[in-house]
Amino acid sequence: MESITTKNAIVHFNMNVYSELNKHIKLSNPSSIFILVDTNTHDYCLPRFLSNLESDDILVEVMEMPEGEDHKTIDICTGVWEALSEYGADRKSLLINLGGGVVTDLGGFVASTYMRGLDYINVPTSLLGMVDASVGGKTGVDLGPLKNQIGVISEGSMVLIDPAFLETLPQNHMVSGYAEMIKHGLIADKGYWHMLTNLEKLDVTVLDKLIYDSVIIKNNVVMKDPHEKGLRKILNFGHTLGHAIESCFLQNADKELLLHGEAIAIGMILEAYLSVKFCNLTKDELTEISDGVLKSFSKIEINSQDREIILKLLKHDKKNSHGKINFVLLDSIGKPKLDCEVDNNSINEAFNYYEKL
C-alpha cells in the first residue's frame, strides 16, 4: 500500500512501517528513544514492536501509563514529563506512542510540549487510532469529564499502521473504531458508507483497504483545513452530542464507561434526526443511517437525568462560538453542513426518536 503524505508527516502501512521507522531512526540519529505504552499495549503489542525496532546503541526506555479514557489527564502527562526528565530526555530525543487513541492523543501532547517540542511517531494499535485519533495532529487530554479540552494541533514525523496489532483487540474496541469509519462515509463518501454497512463481519481480513480509505478521507479534509477554521469541522459529525454522552457516562461512577465509538454511534443517530429537521436529510436516509449504525452498535439507555447533564455539557463543545452551540449536520449522506444552530427541544426530540428505535 502506498504511503500517504499529510501536511507534516507520512502515514505508512503494513510491514513497510518497520523499514521506514528504522530508516528514520538512522537518518535522524535521536539521542534517546522513549516508547509510551499503556498496560494493555505493554503486554500485547510491545514485544512485536521491539522485535522489529533497530535502535543500534541508542538508549531505549519504555514508559507505561494506565489504560482507558479516564486516565487521559494532565496528571498522567505530568508523570510522563517527569519520567522524560529523570531519564535525561533532550530535544533530540524521539517519543514513540504505541497504543490506541488515548496513548497517541496524550503522547502527542507530551511530545509537543516537553522542551517546546520533541520529534514523535504514532503507532496506533486500535482501529480507532488507525483511522482517526493518530492522524491529523490533534493532541491533548480531557479536563475532568470534558473531552479534549486541553491540547494543541501538532503532527509527529510519522504514523505507522500495522493491522496485525488489531488481532490483540477485543471485539468491542474493534467496533468502537468502526464508528469513525462510518462517520467518514456519512460526511464524505456515500459509496464508502454503503460498503461499510454491507460488511458481513468486522475482522482483520477485510480491514486493510477500508482503513486506507478512511485515512485518505480524513487526510483530504485535514490538508485543506489543518487548524479547523472551517471544513475540518465536518469530522465532528456525531461528536457534539457523542462527546457530551461520553462525558456524562465518564463522570457517573454508577454507569459503565462507554467507549468513544459507542458514544459517537449514538451521536450520529441523534444528529441525523436533527439533520432531517434543520437540513435536507430525508426520513428514508435517517432510517438508513439508524439501521446501519444499530447493525453494529447496541442501543444504550439514556434517562431524563442523563439528558439534563448532556445538555449542560454541550455548552463546552469546542465548535461553539459566541455562546451558541454549533452542530455539523447532513444535507444528505455524503454532504455535511457546518455551523447549524439547534435548540434544546429539538435535541430532546432526537433522544425520543433514539429511545423508540
UniProtKB/TrEMBL annotation:
<dbReference type="InterPro" id="IPR030963">
    <property type="entry name" value="DHQ_synth_fam"/>
</dbReference>
<dbReference type="InterPro" id="IPR016037">
    <property type="entry name" value="DHQ_synth_AroB"/>
</dbReference>
<feature type="domain" description="3-dehydroquinate synthase C-terminal">
    <location>
        <begin position="177"/>
        <end position="320"/>
    </location>
</feature>
<comment type="function">
    <text>Catalyzes the conversion of 3-deoxy-D-arabino-heptulosonate 7-phosphate (DAHP) to dehydroquinate (DHQ).</text>
</comment>
<keyword id="KW-0170">Cobalt</keyword>
<dbReference type="InterPro" id="IPR030960">
    <property type="entry name" value="DHQS/DOIS_N"/>
</dbReference>
<dbReference type="InterPro" id="IPR056179">
    <property type="entry name" value="DHQS_C"/>
</dbReference>
<protein>
    <recommendedName>
        <fullName>3-dehydroquinate synthase</fullName>
        <ecNumber>4.2.3.4</ecNumber>
    </recommendedName>
</protein>
<dbReference type="Pfam" id="PF24621">
    <property type="entry name" value="DHQS_C"/>
</dbReference>
<keyword id="KW-0479">Metal-binding</keyword>
<feature type="domain" description="3-dehydroquinate synthase N-terminal">
    <location>
        <begin position="63"/>
        <end position="174"/>
    </location>
</feature>
<dbReference type="Pfam" id="PF01761">
    <property type="entry name" value="DHQ_synthase"/>
</dbReference>
<dbReference type="GO" id="GO:0003856">
    <property type="term" value="F:3-dehydroquinate synthase activity"/>
</dbReference>
<keyword id="KW-0456">Lyase</keyword>
<keyword id="KW-0520">NAD</keyword>
<keyword id="KW-0547">Nucleotide-binding</keyword>
<dbReference type="InterPro" id="IPR050071">
    <property type="entry name" value="Dehydroquinate_synthase"/>
</dbReference>
<keyword id="KW-0862">Zinc</keyword>
